Amino acid sequence: MNILITGIHGFVGNNLVTAFSKQHPIYGLDIVSPQKDGILSTFRWNELDSIPPVEVIIHLAGKAHDTKNTSSDQEYFDINVGLTQKIFKYFLKSSATKFILFSSVKAVADSVIGERLLEGEIPNPQTPYGKSKQEAERYIFNELETWQGSDNSRGRLGVLQQAQQPVEKKVYILRPCMIHGPGNKGNLNLLYILVQKGLPWPLGAFDNKRSFCSIDNVSFAVQQLIEKNIESGVYQIADDEALSTNELIGLIAASQNKSVKIWNISVKLMNAIARIGDFLHLPLNGERLKKLTESYVVSNVKIKQALLISKMPVSAKAGMKKTLDSFKQI
User: Fold this and answer.
1) Which of 43, 243, 272, 286 shows the smallest number of beta carbons within 10 Å?
2) Which CATH superfamily is domain 3-186+210-243+297-313 in?
């Protein structure tokens, strides 16, 4: 199948090209259009009419969460909502049969109440990033409803309900938690450098569990959605096991053949230091402290049921080890 990937030159896009280009012709849509192995051609956003017919559209392009809080609220909506509107309108008018939107668990909740986050949770994002992602999802739901009732629709397309008959187009909204893999340090970079320099981890007193998502598990899930007859819907993507930050520090230390240094400093004291970091723009600020220490466990039961699997192909620790080992080569 011909596949169009927006934001193709980003971290996830590069990995999807590696995973799919041997089986499927790949086209890109991005703000830059360099030549690259595995991509037949990359188009710019003003060249939509020049793109050859494709069967699948994977929408990755967007503005990531800015932990330094230097971006305006409107930037998130202009990019995350604006580009979604443009590419989804293109999808509905095109001959493509599958559309995959990469949203985020932050489109639902900034904090998890209870043991884990489920797809049925009522969305209540608190940040501009999460709100923009939720608005992009809402736009798709509204457009689908309009499209279903128009002459352009020649089949039913149920996103949140079971399809009662074969559909002509299918839409998948994926909500991954933090994706990691070779070539992308992201928020792991701070922890990696800390251990690399032999500094102790001062947040050992925080007891938490967090879900992560290996890029290999992301690629696997997307490939299944592309190649199989999976029901349209909203799906969270995460590794099977959650990890505590202390466990993560241990994995980082092991990848560097170093001993683990964890200090159990008072939670109240560390929160006070983070508040100072907010004012002085230090590496440890309130936003980063929250990301490093909060519990945020994401259920992946629905996607596994849809794919008819009992577990994701890569375990949380194996995926994290692969990511951390790759840091040595950067």
Assistant:
1) 272
2) NAD(P)-binding Rossmann-like Domain (3.40.50.720)
